[in-house]
């Protein structure tokens, strides 16, 4: 298949948007159809947006790191406001054994002490004596990055159709790329949803320059700074497909972590509590698969922003050969 | 030893939480040759059977399932969770946890006895997560329990068997009750030690799930419980203060 192919991409979450843009850049005539009334109506909107290939190695297979090394530069070259300030890993004083464990399983970090923590994040001065700093990582705000990608798609000549509950017929398209997450589960039998909960806080008393992971043996939590004094705190992992409202237990765990990081968060306003289901295969690794003229990009689990650029390139390779 | 009339294929009970993925969990269960797997039932997964996809993966492992009430802090919560678990997993076995202190996850033994009494009277086969306290153990048996699961150390701490005297006393006091060291095991050597003390099983979760290679660690635990069980059955020698040379030292004055 050469450039100029007509391709229908289904699902405008992070996988669909990144794939649509990638295909359009390779010369395809792309139509991106979304069932919902806006882009990013699934788990993508709730994500932290951390671009942290090295940190992920602590709990994810090696392939996640290998396939995401180009991710930060992909995002930087495609959407504005991608931060490259690294990420910080901390633990409450009595859980510093978790830092040892984290460091043993990861690489590309600097072991830092109180002074360096204070230099990187002045608001955390005097609060932590030990941490890990991963200088080569970054983060973005999904709620800015996805609309920016949609604009880019349109500038590349692509079409974006919302409210497509009945997806456009595949007639007239050379290829279909299905990025519909859990909606594709009938076609992709082993897919399941993993519940995640997050909160969005506004706090004028604390400022951070990079995502902070607070390690804890039971409840690991991350806090990602966003513009306008906003902070995203996430995310729980529950083997459930209940996308209903957040539980008090989860809320307490997330908020406690923020409070432990800095007592200034006690006065934060709670802007939003969100729940999403992460589409996941049994090994929690995403897959690009093909059935006839349909290519599926699915199973992003926790790694939608990190792995979409790599997966989109694989989907394009399948189509363009 | 029979657990409510059932002989387990292995003294290794394996928890299913916190693995990197369901696939790694499956491989770990196979490598562990676990006799029982425990599953926690969270409220948000039970409503409208939202945890179905994960439970299906658990059932496919073909190992007897012991649902638990992990994370419950009150009698009522634990009883409700047990009811949901019976419906979801179609078993009257329940590992009963009533947490009394959220930091150490220490059991609330008063609530535990009460919940055990209620559930036993409703026909549940209760596996209570308790401390090594003898009196509490007596009360649990009086409440209808036929198995005891004392902790080795706090859940997830990996500190091993912290009160050897207490665990030995429990074994000596209840020679006919199946005893399982439930929490705090961090290394295969801890598991072997529990079996060497004459315990009937051990329950492991964090030590396998949070290992760098959970599948290899599962195998290590299988070998450890096998070694511990063999050693116990082989009637180990008594430790003694004096050296006892295994070959006679002729011509040496040994008493002097």
Automatic annotation (TrEMBL), chain A:
Top EC class of this enzyme: oxidoreductase
Gene Ontology terms for molecular function: glycine oxidase activity
Protein's recorded name: Glycine oxidase ThiO
Gene3D superfamilies: D-Amino Acid Oxidase, subunit A, domain 2, FAD/NAD(P)-binding domain
InterPro entries according to UniProt: FAD-dep_OxRdtase, FAD/NAD-bd_sf, Gly_oxidase_ThiO
Keywords, comma-separated and alphabetical: Oxidoreductase, Thiamine biosynthesis
The EC number(s) this enzyme carries: 1.4.3.19
Natural source organism: Acetobacter musti
Signal sequence, renumbered to the chain: none
Domain of life, per lineage: Bacteria
TrEMBL record, chain B:
InterPro entries, per database record: Aldolase_TIM (IPR013785), Thiazole_synthase_ThiG (IPR033983), ThiG (IPR008867)
Residue positions binding 1-deoxy-D-xylulose 5-phosphate: 156, 183-184, 205-206
Catalytic function, reaction form: [ThiS sulfur-carrier protein]-C-terminal-Gly-aminoethanethioate + 2-iminoacetate + 1-deoxy-D-xylulose 5-phosphate = [ThiS sulfur-carrier protein]-C-terminal Gly-Gly + 2-[(2R,5Z)-2-carboxy-4-methylthiazol-5(2H)-ylidene]ethyl phosphate + 2 H2O + H(+)
Keyword tags: Cytoplasm, Schiff base, Thiamine biosynthesis, Transferase
Subcellular location: Cytoplasm
Active site per database record: 95
Name by which UniProt lists this protein: Thiazole synthase
Organism, scientific name: Acetobacter musti
Gene name for this UniProt entry: thiG
């Amino acid at each position: 298949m050469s450039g100029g192919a007509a391709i229908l991409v289904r699902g405008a979450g992070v996988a669909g948007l990144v794939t649509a843009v990638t295909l359009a850049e390779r010369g395809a005539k792309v139509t991106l159809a979304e069932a919902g009334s806006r882009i990013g109506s699934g788990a993508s909107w709730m994500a932290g947006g951390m671009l942290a290939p090295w940190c992920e190695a602590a709990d994810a297979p090696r392939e996640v790191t290998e396939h995401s090394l180009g991710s930060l530069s992909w995002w930087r070259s495609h959407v504005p406001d991608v931060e490259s300030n690294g990420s910080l890993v901390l633990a409450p004083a009595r859980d510093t054994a978790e830092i040892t464990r984290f460091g043993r399983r990861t690489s590309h970090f600097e072991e830092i002490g109180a002074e360096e923590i204070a230099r990187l994040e002045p608001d955390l001065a005097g609060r932590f004596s030990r941490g890990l700093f991963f200088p080569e990582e970054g983060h973005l705000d999904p709620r800015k990055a996805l609309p920016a990608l949609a604009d880019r798609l349109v500038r590349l000549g692509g079409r974006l159709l919302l409210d497509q509950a009945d997806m456009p017929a595949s007639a007239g398209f050379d290829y279909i790329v299905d990025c519909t997450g859990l909606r594709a589960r009938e076609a992709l039998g082993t897919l399941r949803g993993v519940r995640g909960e997050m909160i969005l806080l506004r706090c004028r008393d604390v400022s951070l320059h990079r995502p902070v992971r607070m390690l804890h043996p039971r409840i690991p939590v991350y806090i990602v700074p966003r513009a306008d004094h906003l902070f995203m705190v996430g995310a729980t992992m529950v083997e459930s497909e209940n996308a209903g409202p957040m539980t008090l237990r989860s809320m307490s765990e997330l908020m406690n972590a923020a409070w432990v990081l800095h007592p200034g968060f006690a006065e934060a306003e709670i802007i939003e509590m969100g729940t999403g289901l992460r589409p996941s295969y049994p090994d929690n690794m995403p897959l690009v698969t093909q059935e006839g003229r349909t290519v599926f990009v699915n199973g992003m689990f926790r790694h939608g922003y990190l792995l979409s650029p790599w997966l989109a390139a694989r989907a394009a390779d399948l189509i363009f050969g | 030893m029979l657990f409510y009339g059932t002989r387990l294929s292995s003294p290794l009970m394996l928890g299913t939480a916190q693995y990197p993925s369901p696939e790694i969990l499956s491989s770990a269960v196979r490598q562990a040759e676990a006799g029982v797997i425990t599953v926690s039932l969270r409220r948000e997964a039970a409503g409208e059977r939202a945890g179905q996809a994960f439970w299906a993966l658990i059932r496919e492992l073909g190992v007897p399932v012991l649902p638990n009430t992990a994370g419950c802090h009150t009698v009522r919560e634990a009883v409700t969770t047990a009811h949901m678990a019976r419906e979801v997993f179609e078993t009257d076995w329940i590992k009963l946890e009533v947490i009394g202190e959220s930091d150490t996850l220490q059991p609330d033994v008063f609530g535990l006895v009460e919940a055990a009494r209620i559930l036993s009277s409703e026909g549940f086969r209760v596996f209570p997560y308790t401390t090594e306290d003898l009196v509490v153990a007596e009360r649990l048996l009086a409440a209808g329990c036929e198995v005891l699961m004392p902790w080795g150390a706090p859940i997830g701490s990996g500190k091993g068997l912290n009160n050897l005297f207490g665990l030995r006393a429990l074994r000596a006091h209840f020679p006919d009750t199946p005893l399982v060291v439930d929490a705090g095991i961090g290394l295969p050597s801890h598991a072997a030690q529990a079996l060497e003390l004459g315990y009937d099983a051990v329950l492991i979760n964090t030590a396998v799930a949070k290992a760098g290679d959970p599948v290899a660690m599962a195998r290590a635990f299988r070998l450890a419980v096998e070694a511990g069980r063999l050693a116990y059955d082989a009637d180990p020698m008594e430790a003694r203060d004096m050296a006892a040379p295994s070959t006679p030292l002729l011509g040496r004055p040994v008493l002097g």
